[in-house]
Known about the structure:
This protein folds into 3 domains: about 1-80, Four Helix Bundle (Hemerythrin (Met), subunit A) (Up-down Bundle), CATH 1.20.120; about 95-285, P-loop containing nucleotide triphosphate hydrolases (Rossmann fold); about 290-365, no CATH class. The two termini are about 40 Å apart. The mean pLDDT is about 85. By secondary structure, the protein is of the alpha/beta class. It is globular and about 70 Å long. It contains 16 helices and 8 strands. It binds guanosine-5'-diphosphate and magnesium ion.
Amino acid sequence: xxxxxQNVMNKITKSRVIxxxxxxxxxxxxxxxxxxxxxxxxxxxxxxxxxxxKIKEKEFPKGVSKKEYITKLIYNELKExxxxxxxxxxxxxxxxxxxxxxxxxKTTTVAKLASFYSKRGMKTCAITTDTDRxxxxxxxxxxxxxxxxxxxGEPDAQNASKVxxxxxxxxxGYDIRIIDSAGRDNVNKExxxxxxxxxxxxxxxxxxxVVSADTGQTAxxxxxxxxxxxxxxxxxxxxxxxxxxxxxxLTACSEAEVPVAFIGTGEKMNEFKVFKAxxxxxxxxxxxxxxxxxxxxxxxxxxxxxxxxxxxxxxxxFQTFYKQLEAxxxxxxxxxxxxxxxxxxxxxxxxxxxxxxxxEKYKYM
Length: 365
Ligand SMILES: Nc1nc2c(ncn2[C@@H]2O[C@H](COP(=O)(O)OP(=O)(O)O)[C@@H](O)[C@H]2O)c(=O)[nH]1
Ligand SMILES: [Mg+2]
């Protein structure tokens, strides 16, 4: 979807004249791309009607070229269908419940979320109430060790409500408690009964539905069902790195009127962020996202205590080289860094992965 939308934007930039014909062609292209990304037909139609109407009815503002104006218009319209307001993480004490189907990424996200709050100075723990999947406790325990988060639960507990009651008492001293729950293949009575039980005991401030990006449009029904049954405060869309259907999942939640709070962008613990419609659209349209890149550089430099002064002194050694490689690694894959710069299409994919492999080898050498 991303590559293709960029082609459309290129069409606008390259064309000499912007006439009815070109606008028709562009709206058609956008329609096709959005539908391929699994965005609902109804939404796509509304969007393209809106774009066409606005281009026709409005005087083009002075001081802006027609091209800029149309690009901005498409940009804004896309942003709107992804939901307006950006989620503000609560930085006071509260409990968070994560629900969702099997394999959606709940347990991984519990850990990512715990790490997110812990990095912001909140005393955070995770509690698992998943008594359904064998080794659910061990999985969370292992993730917890990686990120230095206390994990509570029992390997062979039988009853979700009972485990929760027991460990809520033991974890009263934490600012943030994140509760993992069991999934099912679909929203069935058993699942709802279990989650409603947890809900009643916990009364969480935040209840997030975790959905995988490859759910696409189906996310709308899931969000509606869960919202009706237990009341959601938001959705977390995982695996946006692996699915071409992210656009569908993201817009579906906005259609279900449940805002997307966070997105998962990879398997690693730091591949997780607050969802910003702005950034998402900027990526679609190929606008370099410099703010995001700067943040990544800062974080990576802090985490590996890479001292820029040391680099300038000139005594560059293997130790510094190693730290540099580590820092680049912390910023994410090369393809992600290039995407943030808006130049991902200009470098062949094979070259990127070959370079990543080389960097890995250098580190061990
Ligand atoms: N690529 C990618 N994989 C993810 C992401 N989030 C979770 N996963 C993977 O999805 C699989 C299922 O995750 P898990 O947390 O066990 O799902 P659960 O059954 O809902 O608890 C695991 O292999 C995770 O590593 C993500 O954002 N990106
Ligand atoms: Mg799980």
